[in-house]
Design a protein that fits this description.
The strands form four sheets. The chain has a five-stranded mixed beta sheet with strand order 1-7-6-4-5, sandwiched between helices. It has a four-stranded mixed beta sheet with strand order 8-13-12-11, sandwiched between helices. It is of the alpha/beta class. The radius of gyration is 19 Å and the shape is globular. The protein contains eleven helices and 13 strands. α4 links the parallel β4 and β5.
């Protein structure tokens, strides 16, 4: 009797724009400091995309790297999944842009909006397509151009200092080794907290969707209740990790590497403390790139794969938490 194949990541890629924006650069725009930003978030610098570029442009470069590692041609893809909260256009979705850039003919493209948990939600979808047998080669990307929507004045400093632009990608196929691949993905949402982290405009709840009055009110900028977000993140992420561990009959010690969404270094440190695991068993790049939302986990994954930090057979646990609230975890055997 044939067994259901696991979905396995066989290629990873990432891309960040060349423009580096340091904390010292932001000091010139708002009442903040390098010390203040580092102490609260662990961020030292981030990247901003050049004018005229969108997340699909960044995703293209990450996708090329992932496809090259996987040895898969773009024309052989069965599905593209694009996770972003900062799309190129209001519509169509950024997946249409990327599908065209890659020369994929009529390959379907699916956009998902799950904010900072977008990559793990995307893994869940990709896994379902592959294990069902519907598709065999899936490209999953997470990409953001946050810098377009930030308030670079003192009232916006609590949020604006956190975000950066970037893209991460991976190629998934059915595993030819039953011991390797995605073991499980677990996704959650609690919409009652949607107003704690949001951008309200443009919105179809108002007409016109954008106006001078809306811009004067500043509701086209991100708003965050930071303490509440932190409180929920350090509760929900360990819970999601615990579910992944339990589902796979594992303990925290059985995991070789933890990869968390790069929202705030203090959150990730708190999660590792709750798991009673040393910080040496996780990897963070937030100091260099800031919060890249849906791109952050695949960017981390690409860096650890290419640096040899993760090896064949290693157990890798991923977790994310973000706006919605939405959160997720995943376990894989690399």
């Amino acid at each position: 009797m044939a067994t259901t194949p696991r979905a396995r990541i066989v290629g990873t890629g990432m891309y960040v724009p060349p423009k580096v924006v340091t904390n010292f650069d932001l000091e010139k725009l708002m009442d903040t400091s390098d010390e203040w930003i580092r102490q609260r978030s662990g961020i030292g610098e981030r990247r901003y995309a050049a004018e005229g570029l969108g997340p699909s442009d960044l995703a293209l470069e990450a996708a090329k790297s992932a496809l090259d590692m996987a040895g898969v041609k773009s024309t052989d893809l069965d599905m593209i999944i694009f996770a972003t909260l900062s799309p190129d256009y209001y519509f169509p979705g950024s997946g249409a842009f990327l599908q065209d850039y890659l020369g994929c003919g009529t390959t379907p493209a699916l956009d998902i909006r799950n904010q900072c948990s977008g990559f793990l939600y995307g893994l869940n979808v990709a896994q379902a397509f592959i294990t069902s047998g519907q598709y065999k080669r899936v490209l999953l990307v997470g990409a953001e151009c946050h810098s377009r929507a930030l308030n670079f004045s003192t009232p916006g400093r609590d949020v604006s200092v956190l975000f950066g632009d970037g893209a991460g990608a991976c190629v998934l196929v059915p595993s030819d080794d039953s011991r390797r691949g995605l073991l499980s993905v677990h996704v959650y949402a609690e919409g009652a907290h949607r107003d704690l982290l949001k951008i309200e405009a443009p919105s179809t709840r108002q007409s016109p969707m954008i106006s001078p009055e809306i811009m004067a009110a500043g509701i086209h900028y991100p708003k965050m209740e930071g303490r509440q977000v932190f409180k929920h993140a350090v509760t929900r992420m360990p819970e999601a990790v615990a579910t992944a561990l339990s589902h796979n009959a594992m303990t925290p010690n059985d995991v070789d590497l933890y990869l968390f969404h790069q929202a705030n270094l203090r959150i990730n440190e708190a999660v590792m403390k709750q798991l009673e695991q040393p910080l040496t068993k996780t990897f963070n790049n937030i100091e260099r790139y800031g919060n890249c939302s849906a791109a952050s986990i695949p960017m981390c994954l690409d860096e650890v794969v290419r640096s040899g930090r993760v090896n064949a057979g290693d157990a890798v646990c991923m977790a994310a938490f973000g706006a919605g609230f939405m959160w997720a975890s995943a376990m894989m055997r690399w």
